[in-house]
Structure formats: C-alpha cells, structure tokens
Amino acid sequence: MVLRSLNARTLRRAICAVSIACGTTFATSSDALPTARIDPRQVTVSGVSAGAFMAVQLHVAHSDKFSGVAAVAGGPYLCAEGSLLAARTRCMRNWQPVPLAHLVRRTRALARQGAIAPLTGLAGSRVFLFTGEQDSTVAPAVVESLKSFYGEFVSNPSNVVFKRHPQAGHGMVTQGQGGDCSATAAPFLNDCDLDLAGDLLSHLYPGLNKPSGLAIDAHLLAFDQKPFGASTALGDTGWVYLPGACRQAHGTPCRLHVALHGCRQSARDVGQRFVREAGFNRWAEQNNIVVLYPQTGNAPNGCWDWWGYESSHYATRQGSQVQVLNRMVDKLLAGHDKR
C-alpha cells in the first residue's frame, strides 16, 4: 500500500492538511469573548516574528500584568523607533547594529513618563527567546540583542532562556506540523521535530504536565474582536482555546497565555493553521491554560504594529493595538473578579 511508504511525520502532515481543507466541520461563527476563571498573576504572552516584537511591546508596556514573555524571531523593545527603514535594516537583517544602550535609555525614560509600566515589573519576569540559525528574515543577532535587553531589567539571569536551532528557518517551530524545518514560507510553521510551544510554556509556567492527549476541537472558540477597539489593522474574528475546567465557577484558577501570530500568518492568510497547529492547545488542555489568539486583518502583510504604521505611540500603553490586546486580556480576567 502507498501508506506504508510514508513515515510518521509525513502522515501527520497529510492528515492535518486534510483536516484543515475539510474545515467546514469547525465552528467559525463569532460570539462574544467569554470571561474565564483565571489567576491574574499568571498571564503571559508569546509571539512569532512581528508577533514577537508585539509580544515584547505588550510585556514591557504592561509588565505589571504580564509575568512572562516568549519571543520567537523577535528583537528588542523600541527596536524600529517608528521607522520602517530601521525595522528592515536594524531589526531584521541586522545590516546596522541594534543601538542597545540607546533603547534601554529610551525605555527607562518612557517608564518615568508613565507611558509604560514601572520597570520593577520586569525584574521577576520569565523570558524565553528562540532563533533559527537558517532564519534570513530576522537574523539571530537581533534575537541575541533582545536577550541583552532583558538582561538589563530581569533580576535573575536564569529567568532568561535563549535557545537556537541549527536547521530552523523563519517561523514557529513545531513537532509534526507545517513545512520543512529550514523553510521560510507560509504557513510559517516549521516541522523541526521540536515542541517549541511546550518548551516555552514550560519555562513561563514551571512544573507543567506533559500532554497525555490531544486538544479538543470544541474548546477552540471564535470570538468577535470588534468590541475591543478601533484599530483598522485587526480582523473581525479572533480565537480562544478555553479548556472545560476554566469555565467552571469553582476550583483552581486557570492561567492565560496570549499567542500572537507573525506576518502573513493570520487567519486571513493561512486560515486556522496557526491557532490549531502551533502546538499550544494540547498543552493548554492538559494544564488548564486559556490561550488567546488575536488576529490582524487589513494590516501591512498582516503584521502587528512594531514599527509605527498606526501611530507614534505604537509601543506604549497608548498604542492602539496594545490597548486592544490589553482589553481582550481584561475581558478574560473579568471572570476572576466576579468569583
């Protein structure tokens, strides 16, 4: 039989491709984002590429709310300084060095002005950084500069983990989903036989249990993003993975993780590939973690705003996308306040 000639990884890809192609069985209607029973001390964020830059912005702007961050192919806070040219030459290809000391000074100044949270919130943060050595979109040296940036603020050096993969290209590294490990192509899910989602979640939340089963399709819910703000770059629909235990009125509160896609990786570009295949959901189901998947829409290349295409305040608490994402988090956290 033909199937006998396929290895396990190829079979996983084939099955996944069929399930996505036949995705009409999945619910796509958008309801209101639900509240959940979440411990407000256990809110973290991660992102890939532009999502990584945005994750860093969200973390620094609201470090009083986010206890940790994971950045896959991302660079330092304020790296682009409102310039698309700097974004391309300094923060992606690294043709110009990242002015780290200058960015640290600017970060401290924004904290003094109250534009971002007090930097004391970063001191106890847990940080996970990842780069692929075959990544020609965001150079590994840029991710190394992000490690140095957090080294200025995080008190315990062991809280900052930096990992690299010799074969990985530009994208979210997975175990059994997506394209070749070294690829830089849609859907920007790179099968390097590495559970990167599990690695980063296990650092952000020490002591997680390894998944013993799969995610549950019915726990991935579409929600209406429009009530959360007026950013024209956001799509109408986002997703949230909500384990059954997190909907109950009593019991141990759940955790919350915000997972931000990269450029050309939103639902508008790749359907539900990122929200279903990045690897977060089965860890979420096993460990009672709510995973929020906000989505861009009519944005440049589907990118989150990390160079100022919407406003000069893009990296601060006044940034329109930072505000929208923060409101989504607050809505989910509202369930904790009521119980």
Terminal Cα span: 57 Å
Strand adjacency order, main sheet: 4-3-2-1-10-11-9-8
Record field, number of beta strands: 11
- Mean pLDDT reading: 91
How large is the share of residues in beta strands?
15-25%
Q: What is the domain total for the residues?
A: 1
Helix content: 25-40%
Secondary structure elements and their pairing?
Layout: H1 8-21, E1 38-48, H2 50-61, E2 68-72, H3 84-89, H4 100-113, E3 126-132, H5 140-151, E4 160-165, E5 172-174, E6 179-180, E7 189-191, H6 196-204, E8 220-224, E9 237-241, E10 254-260, H7 267-270, H8 273-277, H9 280-287, E11 289-293, H10 320-337
Parallel strand pairs: 1-2, 1-10, 2-3, 3-4, 5-7, 6-7, 10-11
Antiparallel strand pairs: 8-9, 9-11
Briefly characterize the structure.
The chain is of the alpha/beta class.
